[in-house]
Structures are given as C-alpha cells and as structure tokens.
Amino acid sequence: MPHVLAKMSMQLLAKSNVDFLSIASRAQSNYWSNVPMGPPDAILGVAEAFRKDTSPKKVNLGVGAYRDDNNKPYVLPSVRQAEENIFKKCLNHEYAPIGGDPVYCDLIAKLGLGENSLAIKEKRNATVQSISGTGALRLGFEFIGKHYNHAREIWMPSPTWGNHPQICNTLGITHKKYRYYDPNTLKFNLKGCCEDICSMPPGAIILLHACAHNPTGIDPKPEEWQILSEIIKEKRLLPFFDMAYQGFATGSVDNDAFAVRLFEKHGHQIILAQSFAKNMGLYGERVGGLTFVCADQDTAAKMMSQLKIMIRTLYSNPSINGSRIVTEILSSPELKAQWLKDVKEMADRIILMRKKLREGIEKRGSKHKWDHITSQIGMFCYTGLKPEQVLRMTKEFHIYLTKDGRISVAGICSSNVEHVAEAMHKVTAS
C-alpha cells in the first residue's frame, strides 16, 4: 500500500501545478487559525512607541528599570566585582539543584526575614530559587491552586501590578480587590483597606506589597502595618508578600523589610516572593526566590518536597549565573557592604529626582498640590494625571508613561527633569 500511495502522489505532482498544491497544503495545515491576536502589554506598548519617536526631547517614564543620571542602564560596582570574582574561580556549568543552591536559598531567606528570624532558626521555612519575582509569584500562586485547602481566593490591592491578576487568570484562581489607594487624597486608604479586610473570608490569601508599592509608590506607615497585621491575624488570613524592591524604597534593605519581619514576629505563616532584578540590577538574569514560612519543620519539609515536584515539571532546574552573583555578594562582608552602598545611592538618586520634579512644577506657579510626589516612595509615582493629560504629555511633549498616570522616577535625570516638570505643569494648568 505505501508503494501505491507514493506512485499516485508522483503522478498527481506531474500533472498538477506544484506551486498551487504547495499553497493549498499550507492553507490546510494551519492548525492555529482559531488563535486570536492578544492585546498588547501596556508597558511594552509605551516602550515601543518611545522607540519610534524621533524627537530629541523624548523621555521614557514607563519602563520599570533603574537608570543613572545620564539615563543609561546601570551595572552596580558590587555586581561587577562579584562577576570578576566568579570568573576567576573557573566554575563549571553543571545543573543547580531543583530548588536552587542551598547556600543561596539560606542567604536570601535571611535577607528577607532577617538574620534573627525565628522561622529560619527553627527550620520552618521552605525556600527555593525562582525565575525572578514573576516566577516566584507564578510558583506561589500555582502552589496555592494545587495544595491550599482553605478559601482559595487571592485579594489584591487596588491598584496592583498588572501581572498579579493575569497570573491568577492563567491559573484559574479567583482574585478580588481591596481598597488601597485613595484617588482623592493620593494617599493610602487605611480605613477602606481595613473595612475590606474585615469582609474577607477566613483563610483567604491577601497579597501585600512589602515596600515601594507598584504602581502607586505609596506604602503604609510602620504604625499602619501594625494595624494591618493585627486585623489580618484576627481574620485568619494568609499574607502573601511581593517584595520586588527591597532597598529601593528607603535605601535600607532592613527598613524595607519591616512589614515582612513584623508579620513573622507576630506569628503569621507568610509567603514571600523576592526579586533581585531591581536592587542588584540583575534584570536579565531572572533571579529571585519564594519562601513559605510554615507552622513547623515537618510541614516545611513537605512543602519543599512538593515545590521541587512543581519546579521539575516547569523548568527542572534554576539558572546558576544570577544566583552565583547574589551568593557572592551576600556571602562576602566586603561585597555586601559595597552593595548596600550601591542600593542606597540608587534610592537616593530617585529621592532627589522626586524633589527636583516637585520643585520644578511648583516654581512654575502650579495651583495644584504636588506633595504626593515626594511623600510617595520607591521607583514609581502615581502622579494623579488623567488619561487625557497623559495623552497630551506624549503628543505635545514626547514624554511616555502609562495611561493611569504612573511614572518611573528612575527615568528622570538632571538633563530632563525640567522638561518633565514643564510638561506636567502645562497639562494640569487648564
């Protein structure tokens, strides 16, 4: 039979137009014709529009990546030194353990929870290396979807990072909003937040930004974190901290971990997602971590076993280069001291740009209040600009930002701050 089919095919090809058959064959083999075009990513869309703009005055305030005062990507001195040290060691490229190098995992857990963490001392933490912060969130949410047997719904602050609900949607996990940002005061809505927490079912997961809230740049004060911890504990909720900016808010990694450590001290069983994209500038290395603080050592061991099974089916093993850089920095007293200095310098530059931007707007005689620019913290600022004002910023001044008025302050530098201030003044003046 195969010989007969082959002979028939040859005869057909000889008698027919080969190009026509080829085109017809390709048309019939389009198995993905039902796939719709996906909506563009809001941040990537801003970046693409910026690239196409030929104006010499153009400014990109959409990307969440640090830039130096020359508006260039910045490699931390501590990272450069760590890379040199690693190169000299002539290490191999064998697989990392499924959960990541144990030394790395121990170091990042202590960086997040603190050197004196009771959970770490009692071995109640299950910590694994992840593919940066996004990978940690995906792994954590998927673990919830598979193993959590309480109220399987995640409550997120309104607003929150756009990828949080998207990951839940992909996994089919229910997600809801709680009040966080007050658009009238441009500040944290403690009253609304507490009221919404009180309405959450026991056992629900509450997502919390540990510091430098994305996108608003608004963090609860220490005394407000205290109140939130007490209410969340009383409601028996499970706190899931997303800590993507440790060090970027205040310039101190310890200060920025205040909420995480407070909750652990208060006896919460927390989940912690960490990233070293921002605070070490390791954007492309995609290195982070996921930690579960459990009730006891036995539970932590079971959690670790299940995390490894999940990782095995996702990507088998984490990458080694980024984690080696983090380990080299955190395990060396000299390099760690340099890194802490680097982090503070980055945070200080952002704080200075906030100050200059506010001064630049106010000195032009703006009748609006701009104190929120300096009271907010971290890389991002919720300017309060309306969508039509954002559109004017782009069309008239070649300044690119997201439609909700969020700007990355890291994109502002000495050479463009007056241009940005002028634009913000003019679009809000009328």
UniProtKB/TrEMBL annotation:
State the InterPro entries in the record: Aminotransferase_I/II_large, Asp_trans, NHTrfase_class1_PyrdxlP-BS, PyrdxlP-dep_Trfase, PyrdxlP-dep_Trfase_major, PyrdxlP-dep_Trfase_small
Cofactors required: pyridoxal 5'-phosphate
Recorded catalytic reaction(s): these are: L-aspartate + 2-oxoglutarate = oxaloacetate + L-glutamate
UniProt superkingdom: Eukaryota
List the SUPFAM superfamilies. PLP-dependent transferases
Please indicate if the UniProt record lists Lyase as a keyword. Answer: no
- What Enzyme Commission number(s) apply to this enzyme? 2.6.1.1
GO MF term list = L-aspartate:2-oxoglutarate aminotransferase activity; pyridoxal phosphate binding
Which Pfam families does the UniProt record give?
Aminotran_1_2
Which keywords does UniProt give here?
Aminotransferase, Pyridoxal phosphate, Transferase
Domain Aminotransferase class I/classII large, which positions?
57-423
Q: What residue intervals traverse the membrane?
A: none
Question: How is the quaternary structure described?
Answer: Homodimer.
What family does this belong to? Belongs to the class-I pyridoxal-phosphate-dependent aminotransferase family.
Q: What is this protein called?
A: Aspartate aminotransferase
- Identify the species of origin: Spodoptera litura
